[in-house]
Amino acid sequence: MRPEQLELHDAQGVQVATLSYDAEASAFIGALSTVLGAAPEQSEYTASMETPARTEYTWEGVHASDDHEEVISPNGLGGYGPFDMNVSVMFTAPTVGDGVAVRTVNGYRPGGDAQALAAELGEPWYGNGNDQVRVETGEPIGEQQPYNDYENAYSVAVNTWEWHGASNSIFAPWNFGIGHV
Questions:
Q1: CA gap 83, 50 in Å, rounded
Q2: How far is residue 65's CA from residue 129's CA, in Å, rounded to a whole number?
Q3: Residues 6 or more apart from 126 whose CB is under 8 A from it?
Q4: CB 157: neighbour CB atoms within 10 A?
Q5: Mean pLDDT, residues 48-58
Q6: Residue 181's pLDDT band (boundaries 50, 70, 90)?
Q7: DSSP code of 133?
């Protein structure tokens, strides 16, 4: 996983393709389905106070989300406008599909020791079950916020949250620089 795209490597470690998180959801999900060897389960969600309407795609160990920022849900919420990339993805297992290994650029795999990773990277650790460790950050995409030490840029994050039945999952893209910590 990288801050702005998934890199796909063959068995010898040679990069063969990339999937941008800003791609059309159908192209991203179609390519991911090919890599994983299966079609995902699909769920639709209306907007809430904090999240836009979205379509979620789920495979064993993988969750992808297509935010519909412009959609006003029947509950009257939504219409957030574009605020991030089109698709986000979370891996909750170190191996998905038919033996596809998942890792960050520094070799961290879902389910690994997030506290040790935080120490290795010099990232804060609170031990409250809500930690996020910034693994890799891309190029700045906007102004630096004066109250935040993190860059306004997309990152790869390791989440310790018990989300989708797993902790120490890898998630991208995530912008630590706009108050998501």
A1: 12
A2: 23
A3: none
A4: 27
A5: 83
A6: very low
A7: E
3-state secondary structure of 118: helix
Helix, strand, or coil here: 12?
A: coil
Backbone angles phi, psi at 92, to 5 degrees: -110, 0
Positive or negative, the Cα torsion across 12, 16, 18, 23?
A: negative
**Residue 72, φ and ψ in degrees, nearest 5:** -95, 120
Strand, coil or helix: what is 176?
A: helix
* CA dist., res. 29 & res. 77, Å (int): 26
**Which tokens is 117 given?**
């990773």
pLDDT of residue 72: 67
Which helix (H) or strand (E) segment holds residue 5: the answer is strand 5-9
pLDDT per residue over 84-136, tens digit each? Answer: 788 999 999 999 998 999 999 999 999 999 999 999 999 999 998 889 999 99
Tell me the one-letter amino acid at 98.
D
Cβ 54 vs Cβ 85: under 8 Å: no
- 122: tokens are 């010099």
Burial class (CB in 10 A: 0-12, 13-18, 19+), 52: buried
| Residues 172/104, Cβ–Cβ less than 8 Å | no
**Mean pLDDT for the chain?**
87
Mean pLDDT of 166-177: 88
